[in-house]
């Protein structure tokens, strides 16, 4: 049985509150991961993490959702991604993704993003995906360029971290640009 949610390295799946809570606790120990996600905040209580985690597994629909990224080789949650800023009228969406520092450069992010884009473009009829990232996060910029995203602009001095202001880079990809490089999937007959 084939699943649109499974790649060679990762499976996208729902998560349970205790998994999300544990992952958030791990991520919050890494200031770089938190800054790249746009929110370096003071340490939180376990109760606060549980409340946040329960919101991640709450009501979702086919276009607005959060998914866990599970490593197929380890069978463990290594990150999450979720759609944001979904505009059904314009056919545009965005997403956020976070991979734990111990799992960077393993191909998990690129495969998870590709699975998400294939679903949103090939199954939900969205025509464009917008993402943004801080200019200092060159690894994320290179990843998105490799996936086919194009830089569309910058918001100068958008965020303040580590004693300095940082630009926010805006990137986008249309369904046509995606389809030039990646498969939108296929319908297999039984």
Mean pLDDT: 86
Tally of strands: 7
The rounded Rg comes to 17 Å
- The chain-level structural class is alpha+beta
- CATH homologous superfamily classification: Gcn5-related N-acetyltransferase (GNAT)
Name of the CATH class: Alpha Beta
How many structural domains does the protein architecture include?
1
Order of helices and strands: EHHHEEEHEHEEH
Low-confidence stretches: none
Shape category: globular
Helix share bin = 25-40%
The strand order across the widest sheet is: 1-2-3-4-5-7-6
Number of helices: 6
Strand percent estimate:
25-35%
Features of the shown structure:
7-stranded mixed beta sheet, Aminopeptidase, 190 residues, alpha+beta
Describe the protein's architecture and organization:
The structure is a single chain. The chain has 190 residues and is α+β, with helices and mostly antiparallel strands. It has a single domain, classed as Aminopeptidase (3-Layer(aba) Sandwich), CATH 3.40.630. The protein has a 7-stranded mixed β-sheet, sandwiched between helices. The mean pLDDT is 86. This is RimJ/RimL family protein N-acetyltransferase.
């Amino acid at each position: 049985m084939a699943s649109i949610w499974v790649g060679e390295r990762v499976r996208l799946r729902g998560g349970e509150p205790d998994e999300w809570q544990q992952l958030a606790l791990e991520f919050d120990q890494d200031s770089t991961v938190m800054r790249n996600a746009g929110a370096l905040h003071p340490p939180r209580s376990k109760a606060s993490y549980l409340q946040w985690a329960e919101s991640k597994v709450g009501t979702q629909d086919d276009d607005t959702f959060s998914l866990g990224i599970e490593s197929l080789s380890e069978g463990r949650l290594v990150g999450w991604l979720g759609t944001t800023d979904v505009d059904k009228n314009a056919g545009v969406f965005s997403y956020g993704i976070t991979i734990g520092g111990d799992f960077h450069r393993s191909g998990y992010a690129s495969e998870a993003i590709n699975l998400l884009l294939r679903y949103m473009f090939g199954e939900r009829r969205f025509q464009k995906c917008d993402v943004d990232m801080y200019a200092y996060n060159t690894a994320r910029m290179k990843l998105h360029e490799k996936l086919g995203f194009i830089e569309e602009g910058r918001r100068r001095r958008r965020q303040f971290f580590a004693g300095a202001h940082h630009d926010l880079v805006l990137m986008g990809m249309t369904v046509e640009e995606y389809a030039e490089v990646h498969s939108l999937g296929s319908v297999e007959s039984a």
